[in-house]
Amino acid sequence: DPSLKASKALVIPLVLLIIIWLIAKLAISRRVQVFSKILAWMLVIGFTWANLYQYLTGLIYASGIHYEIGITNDIVVLSGMAGIFLIDPAVTYFVIVPRYRESYPDSNLLRSKTKFIITYIIAMICVMSLAIGLNS
Fold first, then answer.
1. String of DSSP letters for 43-101
2. What stretches in the chain show pLDDT beneath 50?
3. In terms of C-beta density within 10 A (0-12 exposed, 13-18 middle, 19 or more buried), how is residue 46 classed?
4. CB 110, CB 100: distance < 8 Å
5. What b/e string do you get for 73-93 counting C-beta neighbours within 10 Å, with b at 16 or more?
6. CB 10 within 8 A of CB 2
7. pLDDT tens, 23-43?
């Protein structure tokens, strides 16, 4: 049922984001606060890109261009992957992280590119697992 899939694709990520954001707000440990807030922003940006990407591919398909055939499919798929694996971490690192560095100047996560990348990889593994679980 398409409406069930659509509701799963929206409701479950939103509930997940709310839980992560509440953990960030209620946590006593500053490390947990920083980690939860950065993770929530990564997921918000990733989910927003994924929904925008699906909407745009739907528009392309509805316009009569059948992008599944040939190089157009490769371009569409690569643009979706670029959004998830390049735009999401770049926006988070260059826009969100500097704002949190002001609030949490002693945070190692916000100062270390390596820790940020590890956090991003873990977040993407969780998101991909969630996406695969929702589609099966």
1. HHHHHHHHHHHHHHHHHHHHTT--TTSTHHHHHHHHHHHHIIIIIHHHHIIIIIHHHHH
2. none
3. buried
4. yes
5. eeebeeebeebbeeebbebbb
6. no
7. 999 999 988 999 899 989 988
